[in-house]
Predict the 3D structure of the following.
Amino acid sequence: MADKLLKFSHSPHVRAVRTTKQIMIHVCIALLPACVMGIVYFGLKALLLLAISLLSAVASEFVYELIVGKKICQIAKKFDFTSCVTGLLIGLSIGVQTPWYVPILASAFAIIVVKMIFGGTGKNLVNPAVTGRVFAFMSFTSLMASGWVAPSIGSLIGGASLNPTTGATTLTDIFTGGALPSLSNWDLLLGTGLSGCIGETCKVALIVGGIYLAVMGIINIIYPIIYIAVAGLFTVCLNGFDFNYFLPSILSGGLMLGAIFMATDYTTTPNTTLGNVIYFTLLGLVTAGLRQATGIEVVSFVILLMNLFVPLIDKFIINKPFGYNKPKKAKGVQ
Amino acid sequence: MKTNIKKIATDGVITNNPTLKLVLGTCPTLALTTMAMNGIGMGLAVTFVLICSNVLISLLRKIIPNQVRIPAFVLIIATFVTIVRLLLDKLLPDLYESLGLYLPLIVVNCIILARAESFASKNGVFASALDGLFMGIGFTLALTLMGAVREVLGSGAIFGVKLWDFQIGFFASSAGAFFTYAVFIALFAFFSSLISKAKHKKDALKEREENAVQLEKKEVE
């Protein structure tokens, strides 16, 4: 939009055609395969839940803006699809057994409390979708963490897919001991016969979405890979360097969804390359460590926790200004 | 000395509400507001201690040397807290159990010390007693309201009476306590700003009318 008004802003000026709206539409497109696979696996209930969370996220943004006193055409003009992404992510990160009101409350909390109160898109301290999910999980633990429905083949394995590392023995039983042949790595990758949240069962769909985002230049594919690889490797380290743990640990639970779509949110990642590397490495380490320690799926909690460290990382890791020479006396503190 | 009862009352309950405006005594506010009943119990205990300590400190304000006033205040407060503890243990053992550690912690509750320091040590006995009463009422109201909201949302009940099965566990947890507290402070600030704006408007209108009347008078003359 070429505004004719004189606009004044501080210097680093980024000239780009791309707007927030376009980026968010791309993210929505990237989430579509996961949505489709979720609907294929879990049926119409999944579609219903996705629609509910999407609509309630958008609606709560409109309601908030109306309360604040803006006109409806103004809001519609300013609307940038961020809440669509948030709503979709919340819908994807809950299980099909969840009652219908949970995504409504989670979306409303995510949009109103986490995003709008802090000043709208780009000003939120933590990722809205992750916080909405954590809110829902804390509020309705019994409803969300039990009664997992396994799709298609029907090998109901309880929460096993969601807590892949309930301690060394369970993991050995399930994955390396071959006690459950229906859960090979291929099954984990494709999500067949695997119970779990709507969006996180089919890893292929998520990976396709991630590649789409990377090709469109929206995320740097290196960062999710760092997260996933570090989480996998650290799980291997914690389990006595047994590389059989690597694939099951990265292919189960919400790690892919979290790494590709939630952790890479622009607002809640550091500004510098080094900062990002540190951030995603820490995410991987903390995820693997806490998974091992608690025995439940912790990806959303870890992303929420690490989001709070982002300002700290940004404070200490600053890009060297162009042409800057270090003062000779000062020793490199980094 | 004439005591302005109305001013002390509005100060304690609204303009200087200890929980929502001064943000004092947050520890029991956050920890005990899971139930409305807890809020009332804690509020009344604090009110009792506040009134008694305010009265005693006000009486002794000319005897206590300035250098050791804080230890003296704490000693006086601790005396009354002990009385409350023993009374509650005997009369309301259930409430005593649910308040737990927070009852002895009233000793170091900022509200009481703040009122002792900023009001009772400078004002007369009657005014100090009133200040203690109304500060206590403000505290009790805030705690009870927060407790009621958190109880309804977090455990689907109010004053221990079950309303429905729908519960949002978030509000029963400590994160929910911070959230509810923040929302309460925000709403309180919003409404008090509305009120003060309305008051300003009224004052301005009044002034303008008076000016107009004066102008008319001048013109007539």
About this structure: The interface with chain B takes residues 105, 113, 135, 138-141 of chain A (CB under 8 Å). Residues 215 and 221 of chain A are 9 Å apart (CA to CA). The first helix of chain A runs from residue 20 to 42. Confidence is low (pLDDT under 50) at residues 152-182 of chain A.
